[in-house]
Amino acid sequence: MHTPLQTIQTVVPHDFIDLGTGDPQLELLPLDLIREAAAHRLGQPDRDFLQYGTEQGDGFFRAALAQFLSARCGFPVSHDDLFTTSGVSSALSLICTLFTKPGDLILVEEPSYFLALHLFADHGLRVASIRTDESGLVMDDLIHALKESKPKFLYIVPTFQNPSGHTLSQERREQLVELAKRHDFVILADEVYQFLSYTQSPPTSFSAYIDSEHVISLGSFSKILAPGLRLGWLHTHASIMKTIITCGVLDSGGGMNPFTSAIVRSLIESGGLDGNISSLINVLGNRVQITSELLKKHIPQAKFTVPHGGYFFWLQVPGIDAKELRKSAQSNKVDLRPGVLFSSQNQLTDHFRLSISFYDVERIEEGILRLKQCFDK
Fold first, then answer.
1. pLDDT tens, 279-301?
2. How far apart are CA 320 and CA 217, in angstroms?
3. Measured between alpha carbons, how far apart are the two ends of the chain, in Å?
4. Are residues 85 and 135 in the same domain?
5. For 108-124, what is each residue's pLDDT tens digit?
6. DSSP β-bridge partners for residue 156
7. Both 262 and 279 in a single domain?
8. Contact between residue 21 and residue 12 where contact means Cβ atoms under 8 Å apart
9. Rounded distance between C-alpha atoms, residue 2 and residue 354, angstroms
10. Which carries the bigger pLDDT value, residue 226 or residue 375?
11. Strand 136-137, strand 215-220: pairing
12. Which of 118, 157, 260, 314 is the most exposed place for a label (fewest CB within 10 A)?
């Protein structure tokens, strides 16, 4: 027998509803927009984007991206401070390669994005976690940790966090930057949900603090356009940028994704990216509102805060074991992600994550009804 040929990472059987997956729904991926942008770029006589790219990334793409970010962030962003990546995951791996060695200590949030924890493990890094609340990192806990240890960096998802949906407050952001300067560690801010705000504007992006020389802001087109593009950006100070753009992998292979970034440049310049983000905010914002109502109605024992943006609901049901709940849910053809996955300390056993990104409201409702049956048993 031949193994079925597979294109996408997440394949869910038709009769199964995976409310745990954080992938965007296929129907939300703007094929027509990308087709038009590709036709526009391929219709030009310029062939430069088919060559090995400049190490920092295509200058015309970075200029277009800088203009987009300046308008979205509310402060000037220079193309000189941007580096083209193949998405946040590869950027994190590159940063670990260049700035850490096995055994180094890093700090993360508790909970944290579980696949980043996997990536840090691949690099042999020691991980310590800092407690969070609805306003993000608990600063007293961080201050205490910094008295006891000297981390290389702190990895955070500061806006509409994965998995909690919480956002680090403006006051704590400013306090965090001061701590990074005082204790000489780098803030790795994974800001992939920064522009997916549904009910209130988030605090200032960490991009505003790159002049501290202790901040790297990571962005991606995976959540605001399409993950298959494998395209993102890194925003940081020249002192950090120098180490990145002189590394061996870029010296050998050139800058990342010159072909894709040239196409996305056309999409940015046409206004298509802004339009796509507006469309996503309308669709996903509606899903958040409806999902909140469904959860309150059908799983009233679950405690959660309605997220103001991003993809995720973070639920707590005191007394449950979410890993056992997941087994029951899967037998009922629905899935979730247990909280222990997001804990570097093997905690959060009574929490679980649900996502609004992969299904329309009808399928989300059906999934929640199936999940309700697991609690009713």
1. 999 999 999 999 999 999 999 99
2. 36
3. 40
4. yes
5. 999 999 999 999 999 99
6. 189
7. no
8. yes
9. 34
10. 226
11. unpaired
12. 118
SS3 state of residue 149:
coil
Please indicate, yes or no, whether residues 72 and 192 belong to a single structural domain of this protein. yes
CA angle 156, 72, 20 (to 5 degrees): 45
> Is residue 173 located within the same domain as residue 299?
no
Residue 63, in any domain of the structure:
yes
Q: Indicate the pTM of the whole model.
A: 0.96
Integer Cα distance of 194 and 59 in angstroms: 24
- Number of structural domains (the chain) is 2
Where is pLDDT greater, at 224 or 200?
224
Residue 1 has what pLDDT? 62
Residues 280 and 214 in one domain: no
Q: Which H or E run includes 189?
A: strand 186-190
pLDDT digits (tens, 9 = 90+) for 325-370: 999 999 999 999 999 999 998 899 999 999 999 999 999 999 999 9
- Cβ–Cβ < 8 Å for 314, 353: yes
In a domain, 22, yes or no: no
Select from 220, 246, 270 the last residue of a domain.
Answer: 270
Choosing from 244, 270, 296, the residue where a domain stops is 270
Q: What's the CATH number where 172 sits?
A: 3.40.640.10
Stretch 136-141: mean pLDDT:
97
Q: What is the mean pLDDT of residues 296-321?
A: 97
377 has a pLDDT exceeding 80: no
**What is the rounded CA–CA span in Å between residue 84 and residue 91?**
9
Distance CA 41, CA 352 (A): 43
Q: Exposed, middle or buried by CB within 10 Å (0-12, 13-18, 19+), for 84?
A: buried
* Same domain (yes/no): 196, 341: no
Give the structural domain span for 138.
34-270
* Nearest by Cα to 132 from 145, 119, 149: 145
Q: What's phi and psi for 288, nearest 5 deg?
A: -60, -45
Which value, in Å, is the radius of gyration of the alpha carbons in the chain? 21
d(CA 49, CA 59): 11
